[in-house]
Amino acid sequence: MSEITCWFDFASNYSYLSVLRLARQQDVIVHWKPFLLGPIFKEQGWDNSPFVLQKDKGDYVWKDMPRECAKYGLPWRQPSAFPRRSILAARVALLGEHQPWIAEFCARVMLANFEHDEDIGNQACIAAILTSIGLDAEALLAAAQSPDNKARLHARSDEARALHIFGAPTFFVGPEMYWGNDRLSDALAYATR
Amino acid sequence: MSEITCWFDFASNYSYLSVLRLARQQDVIVHWKPFLLGPIFKEQGWDNSPFVLQKDKGDYVWKDMPRECAKYGLPWRQPSAFPRRSILAARVALLGEHQPWIAEFCARVMLANFEHDEDIGNQACIAAILTSIGLDAEALLAAAQSPDNKARLHARSDEARALHIFGAPTFFVGPEMYWGNDRLSDALAYATR
């Protein structure tokens, strides 16, 4: 079976498109790599998303997103806060990386942020999502915030840097890197060649 | 007949893809808008292309380009200098904007830069291109560098700012803005709806 690795940030609107598209894929194994863009952006000297720092680009993105969502048949509501704090969701996703619930969890967090305009930085939001898919929210939230798991998310940032990742989503098929939801079809075509 | 407006910079590698694709289009009227990204980037506080300033992104772009060119059936050689000075080519293109030779001129300048690795900032390079399509190079280069025409290119930058253009290529179909070669198919689909 073909394989693809997907690096994504729950705060990233273009990651939303790719996570939902990949969560639907049946014919490829997805390796989910939740990570935080913040530390990557910080190294560029940016203290926020470029979509906030560059006003014209940011304004454009909110015109681009409804068109993109229509293209892929995905729901869309512009979040009332952007970018949202994604560290808690990323920590939980780290725990689920190799679990059968990972795709569903990622899709639901993304929909909470970009369809339902919910604050995914809020523990109650993540707990509700975990419960909705039949998981023990309390135990997972405690494990997610354990020192060990926090250290794993730090290590994930180092891994991203080592791979020269500069944005999200970013895909790898073997050593081939593809940046952006606009390259997901190419990456999948290469994976299934 | 459907219409699309294409804002592009001869120094921009993703503009290269779009200019060549549009130069082949028979079923849509293209309004060519040569402009300079430099002044737009300067307002962001950037003194060079983001592909130079952001090393990881720049390194990626040179892996992305051969794949993109293969996808669109376009030739590709990574320029030995990037970004090249595009002001002279832009000034000539401004003169040709409403002339039958504009598409061919733009395509040849782009190929000089991104297939033949020629210095399009050099007057001899632009003169050779003009001559190759049967035009009076000497007269056009003189007109291109007249005070009036220089002022027109300045005004073009103001026009780009007024439209909130932040990168190239950028397309308009009526008031709808599309940024990047990755959106050209969507823009064309919308234009011919």
Summarize the structure.
Two copies of one chain form a homodimer. Chain A is an alpha+beta fold and 193 residues long.
Describe the protein's architecture and organization.
The structure is a homodimer of 193-residue chains. Chain A is an alpha+beta fold and 193 residues long. Chain A has one domain (2-191): Glutaredoxin, CATH 3.40.30.10. Helices cover 55% and strands 11% of the residues of chain A. The longest helix of chain A has 18 residues, at 55-72.
- Count all strands of chain A and give the number: 4
Question: Strand portion of chain A, in percent?
Answer: 5-15%
Strand order of the largest sheet of chain A: 2-1-3-4
SSE-based structural type of chain A: alpha+beta
How many helices of chain A?
Answer: 10
User: What is the CATH architecture descriptor of chain A?
Assistant: 3-Layer(aba) Sandwich
Under CATH, the topology of chain A can be stated as: Glutaredoxin
Portion in helices of chain A: 40-55%
Average residue pLDDT of chain A: 96
The CATH homologous superfamily of chain A:
Glutaredoxin
Low-confidence stretches of chain A: none
Largest interface: A-B, 21 and 21 residues
CATH class of chain A: Alpha Beta
